[in-house]
Amino acid sequence: MDIKEYIKNGFEAYYARYNQVTEEGFCRWMRPDVPDVMKVADVDEEWSRWKLVPSIVSHDDVAALEEEFGLKFPEWYKAFISTYHHFFDVIPEQGIDEPFDYIKDMYNPLLCKLGYLPFSWDTEYGKLRCIDLQESPDEEKCGIYEIDHEILFEMDEENTERNELKESLIFLYPNFKTYFDHTFLERS
């Protein structure tokens, strides 16, 4: 399976599913400050509809981010962050100018030190989602978990052990592909 093509098709399907404009002129893919290359149409002086734009993120860019996080990213995640520039609301947005800014906001030293890659923030409930990299390189076994940010931020970065952290994690999906399918391909 070509992972990058799978991610591309999933992003496109998700974008198409919610790309309707209401009678009032609203669309889920509207926001202020859309770069010109990502604009579909201006709605007013401030708001524009955006479109997916093929990513200019390089292998070297991803390698630098891996080094910054101190982790080796799974192939599914590498494809996930290097396929399209977007402003999706269910994952960190990746605009053209600084595509990793919101991803870097996910960084948590304790999670990374203990082998978890934080990749998404549930803003509604304040939970951080992460990939358990302990089983790498077998991505089929790298589960997806979430942790309440308040519990995480109360943990001692220097003294918390992996098993103590794991007790506070909530299992969500067996791997990243399953997470991706549920989030982007299944209709809610």
From TrEMBL:
Residues 57-181 form the Knr4/Smi1-like domain. This is SMI1/KNR4 family protein. It comes from Brevibacillus formosus.
